[in-house]
Amino acid sequence: MVWLALAILIPATASPDDQRLAALAARAKDRSIWPALRTLAEGMTDVEQRGRAYFVLGYRENEANDFPSGARDLRLAVETGFSLSDYARYYGALASRDAGEMQQAVNLLEDFPARHSQSNLRWVALQQLSDLLVDLKRPDRAIRILLSEPQTRLRPELYIELAHAYRAAGNAREAVRSFQDIYYRFPLAGEADEAEGAMAELRQTLGGKYPEANEELQTLRADVLSQNYRWRDAQEAYSGLLERLPSSPLVPRWRLGKAQSLFRMRKTDQAMEILMKEVPPSAETEPERLQLLIEASIRKSDIPGARKYLGTLGGLYPKSPRYAEALDAFGNYYVRWGDWTTAAKYYQPLAENFPSTDAGEEAHWWRTWSFYLAGDLNRARAGFAEHVTLYPESDHVPGALYWLGRIDEKRGAVEDAKAWYSYLSRRFEHSYFAAKGYDRLQDVVKTNPAPKPTEIVPVSIRPIVEKIPRRPPPSLHSCGQTVKSDLLQTYFVLRQLSLTELAEQYLLDRLEVSSHDPALSFTLSRLRAERGATTFALFDARRSSPRYAEYEFGELPEEFWTLLYPRDYLPVVESYAQKAGLDPHLVLGLIRQESAFNPLARSVANARGLMQILPSTASPGRKGRARVARQLYDPEFNVQFGTRYLRDRLAALGEIPELALAAYHAGERRVKEWRDRFSFQEPAEFLETIPIPSTRVYVEAVLRDAGIYRKLLDGSAQFAKCQ
User: Fold this and answer.
1) pLDDT in tens, 16-37
2) In 169-285, where does DSSP find H-type helix?
3) Which CATH number fits domain 2-214: 2.40.70.10, 3.60.15.10, 1.25.40.10, 3.40.50.1440?
4) CATH no. for 570-714
5) CATH topology of domain 486-564
6) Model confidence pLDDT, tens digit, residues 111-161
7) Residues designated as active site
């Protein structure tokens, strides 16, 4: 694998010295290689290559705990001024520190930010410099350097260094304030726990002179936890505030926050008790209080009570986002019970009064779908067309185009139907509805043949489809091994030196800043696939081209599709799928959505392995369940059981994949209830009517992925012919 990587990364035109350096670097973990590497470095006239040779030598020496040699050779690398001088300077400082040369380490790092302002090592270098200065009893110097960096108070890893420096300098009050700021402003950062411990120590040291954080700052911690759905932690934070500061003017706000946390933790009665008795009405808290009371009442099936609260909320705060959430909650409640007509009465005002919100967009769709289910095809057609016009980038656009085609079929407007299906299958290449549209198009053409149209988009549908943005140019070139990005030069040098871990960390660091750079994500995907990290490689490939399903195979690199659609465990899947009478492509699509091919995946619900099987499903009786739970991490056992389980769902639900997959995700009992509420004319109608959004998205994604796997594996996928 190393030599394969070298063949890709070292150009054929590389000089003999380049090739020899790459070969020695690939084996440089072996001490016996070091003399040859040193000889090569000493004899090189090209300063870039000499710097690289000394760097990889010094790095490996340092890695092997030969700190004096590592420090010396890394300093020699720095002196060349080669392209990785920032790396040589940083790791040279670490080697000098570990060799006991503390001042030499400081000298290497002190002007690091000025010399390497764009380096991905800038922040860790500043951390190391601060630690060194504090260890050398020079905390005031560390404080000055940290305060000169604008990012210090915005990055917890730097801010904690400042706090420690203040403490070391004897400035306890500033240390406390800094630790408090970290603890309350950044509760999700790893440094928050460290700050909490330091605060406790300083409180004990300072006693009555300890400066308490102000109430707004303390509230911020609870609010941040709540905003990030850390409900248990948020509830504890709000409860702590209420206990410590019972007379604060912020008490109503804290009680409301506590009630919300309890409600999200499904402690509905406790939440309602607080909302009804402990949160006095006020302009600041009343919209949220009423909205939570509405959702709590709905959860307890007190619909009259919920309607009363909704009337009050809508009357007092008709433009409040909380009113929008309440309308959405009511609509969703009736959808869960299959009462789409009543649901539409709540979705209608939500769509009309909050059209620019995500909830308003969804409400517009569900209201339109209610018309279709009710057989009101005229209103449904107008609604689908309007949805495309108002929300041309909505995830529902492929579905809207499909249903426009189906309605026009029913109305006898066959040519219009063909136009919808044709456009849909071209524009949204691999989507579930594109496949459905293509199948319908073939059926319609058989029964209603017509001359090939002269226009790509017929006049009859043009006013609507022209609202849909053109497919943007692919983010990756369909041909060529190298993806272009100015940020990749350092990565390729590190790879040529076989410093793979540093190369991967470099990409991760750069993606923190340039998260939308497709070349970085694609390169990271390649690297992770090379070392067998299939799941991470899949996610990284998807990040490099998030809208991949809209493109033809030939518009993106073949390698991209291989990374995005792994074939791990393919023989196992094919074997057990055949035994169960299943389409192996369907099983692969399911695995991709369930676990992303991670055999050790475990969900919050305790589902395990490739096909995410619950131990209680695999072993209904308690006897032997612990053993089975462990076996579910074995790919073969998991796929063997999972394929049988999926086969049973198909058999129980009429061999309809949409229903079987919904049952796999949400349970067979639920699916039978959903199926029996309506007389669905086709499986796509059932899919569109699934009342649990996550299940609906899941079913659509699995079937899309199954279709892509089928084309990739049967050879029908056409890729660009590259020289």
Assistant:
1) 889 999 999 999 999 999 999 9
2) 172-185, 191-206, 215-227, 231-244, 251-264, 268-277
3) 1.25.40.10
4) 1.10.530.10
5) 1.25.40
6) 999 999 999 999 999 999 999 999 999 999 999 999 999 999 999 999 999
7) 594
